[in-house]
Amino acid sequence: MDKQNPAEHSAIDNILPTSNEDEMKKLMQNLDREQAYREHKCWRQYITVIVSIIFVAFQLYATLSGAITAQILRASHLAFVQFLAFLLFPATKKLPKDTLPLYDVILGLTGAGCWMYIVINFQQLVRRSGNNTTLDVIIGIIGILILFESCRRIVGLPIMIIAGTFVIYAFVGKYLPGFLHHRGYSLQRVVCHLFYNTEGIMGTPIGACSTFIFLFILFGALLEKTGIGQFFIDLCNAIAGGASGGPAKVAVLSSALLGTVSGSSVSNTVGSGSFTIPMMKRLGYKGEFAGAVEAAASTGGQLMPPIMGAAAFLMAESLGMPYITIVKAAIIPAILYFTGIFITVHLEAKKLGLKGMPKDKLPRFLPLFLSKGYMILPLVVIIWFLCAGKTAVYAALMGIVACLVIGIVVSIVDLAKGRKPTFGSKDLIDVMCAAARNIISVAIACGMAGIIIGVVTLTGLGLKLGAGLVALAGGKLFLTLIFTMLASIILGMGAPTTANYLITSTITAGAIIQLGVQPLAAHMFAFYFGIIADVTPPVALAAIAGAAIAKARPMKTAFNATKLAIGAFIIPYMFVYNSQMLMIDASIGRILFIIATALIGMFGISVALEGYGFNFTGLLHGTNKPVALKTTFDVVERVLFAIAGLLCVIPETRSDIIGLSMIAILIAYQLITKRILLTKKQ
């Protein structure tokens, strides 16, 4: 949840139920490992602060000067991360968070020392590459094992088990039959390949993490300190709070906006859900539906450009594409995803007759935007420079500068008016500590992904897995997509966004690419289904978080969230079969036509899911008395709406014409039958 300025008050505080901050914090710690960190006091706090400040300063120096070679930067980055990991995160969630056991100090120093061994002995290691000493191997083994332990604590068991399985495969593959067989590798070869080579732990993922991902996380920490989360919620209340089912629409809009700076579905759910879910329940939504709306929308925040939970940066690096290309490709699918949820929420509100929040209690858009609209300027700055063709590093740096300038200017204005400064030196230290803490899980996930990638490159397993999956599907693209979808959902269960993308893209995307699919579409396909695991039973962490806030049944909430997120199960198939939906080789006119027809298609799909379309109001025949009839649909009509919606979402002219015609005919049929019904009531 975004940290708010104590002096800042929302315009809707008087109508929102008071949330128990301690309860929300406990919920986040239980469901989101990244939030279960120690809160040190006394001398331990000073150590954490000092190390965090040095870490941030080192990263900024490395970025601005360019004087540090890639391997030394990556090893130094991992040294800081390993030390802070054991300083901040206990061995289990149940252990007290106000102590620091000696064994964690030893593990932290040892883990950092293993990576500093590379920094100190870099030249010697380069000279004896391929002929490493026994000490090199021992250091590598210890470093890898400590990385596994930090992964268990912070990122979770799924990626640790997967990476461990890959390491075991590197040793036992020579005993396996069929396509899994390889010639076998010695302990020295495997350890040195994973620990010292840039195709292992210090590979592309850590390279991205130690450069622009860190800068964007620092940027996100600065944004949080400005209170942008509350501003987004207030802004969405001003836009949609007074409409039918207002709080649910606010949940959808605010989660989409928060997704631009949030890297966690669970944190997003708890952060905005602590406001929106109680409000939805008060206005008549069932707890399971209220929790599902927030979970589905918050999970979709990871699919929303420009940041996409840091996955956009890794995707750009993995595919060798400009960052802005990834952002552009994600726009139409993200719009369709949130439109589907928004329409479903609207139809549910209309079906239940739910009203919005009192408009006199809501903030007014123009005064709010004029008074606090400056908060979005850093985001505008980043998007501006990315569109201008600048690198992600440059755009992130300019965004950080914009945040600092705004913070300073606002603080000067506060001082001039005799108020406490909004942004001071303590806030800057808090930002540095938050950035250093937030990068830990991302860096560890990147390191574990490096192990997986290292084994894949060493053994050639990537092509073998892809070939195996294609062979299982009989070479059929649709069946391969089905298998890839299921594998991505399973692999993505319980994994943070960054780890999620790294796992799913490494293991499953190659199979689709082998069948001639655009690499960007293949990676996006795997990413979408990995992310949607956060609302898909049985794990569904975001849905469980929403259910806990709503005091609803977790699995029913998860099934509702899956229904609301139906777009995420359909859209990836569409852009695999026609990459124009990702703005690949498509004209502006074609893109606008795809968006328009796909939005109508999402309406058709939402109508099919809800079994309801709109209220028809007419005059009773022979009288002037207005009568309202609800257009509820039977099974056949719902199936027809679903088919029509799918045809419209498919980005092809022929299917669009058929789908639009079907929707028009179905609506006309409803209007005619309702008018006849009114006539019969005379």
TrEMBL record:
The keyword Glycoprotein is annotated on this UniProt entry: no
All residue ranges annotated as the TRAP C4-dicarboxylate transport system permease DctM subunit domain in the record: 142-586
Source taxon at top rank: Bacteria
Keyword set, alphabetical order: Membrane, Transmembrane, Transmembrane helix
Keyword Coiled coil: no
InterPro entries linked to this entry: DctM, TRAP_DctM-Dct_fused
Transmembrane segments: 43-62, 101-120, 132-148, 155-172, 204-223, 321-345, 365-386, 392-416, 437-463, 469-492, 499-521, 527-549, 561-579, 591-614, 635-652, 658-677
Name under which the protein is recorded: TRAP transporter, 4TM/12TM fusion protein
